[in-house]
Amino acid sequence: MTEDAAKEVLNPGSIEATSQVMNLKKAKVDYIIICGSLPQPTIVLLRELKKFGLKVPLFGSWATCNEDVIRMSGDASELFYAVASMASWYDEGPGVARMREITLKYEPGTEKPYRGKTYTYGWVIGTVKIEGMRRAGRNLDGEALVNSLEGMKSFDTGGLTGPIGYGPTDHNGGSTWKIFKAEPSTGKFISITEWRSPK
User: Fold this and answer.
1) DSSP 128-167
2) What dotted CATH number matches 18-85+177-191?
3) How far apart are alpha carbons 79 and 68 in whole angstroms?
4) Considering only 4-13, 75-84, 167-176, which range has the smallest mean pLDDT?
5) Smaller CB count within 10 Å for the chain: N or C?
């Protein structure tokens, strides 16, 4: 953060952000970055930015890349962007299409409101574990599964995430993200980048 950057605190559970927005407006900020692990403060901030006419982009973390933010803030989310390491329910790709197909086979009519990226996250965990077991072969035990996963390099999830890989000293799985932009008219987050890794 540069010395001339404005810094404000918006606590979880806040129901308004008047003083924060007024201070940001006074500082003539060009954009805002909100770092948090809950969508609720983001919803409050977006509503207050619109209310007080501060029309600047707001960039959020993975936890704010949640369709409830768009649903609850409406057109106030027009300039909202967020990063996420998981695809949205409605994104393209064979892995995403399979997730939708199987989900709706067992839970028909549940496509809306859109399932969030936490649903994709759970699906990816299952997908990776199944692939690890498949690669481990018939003599599956804990050690075989770990060895199988640690040998997994650039596993393609079909668009659910970027490539996933592990190693004996690398258990992160992946480090790719997309930037998404809120689209209030559809209630969706539209990806504006491909999967990319931080520099």
Assistant:
1) HHHHHHHHH-SS--HHHHHHHHHT--SB--TTSSS-BEEE
2) 3.40.50.2300
3) 15
4) 4-13
5) C
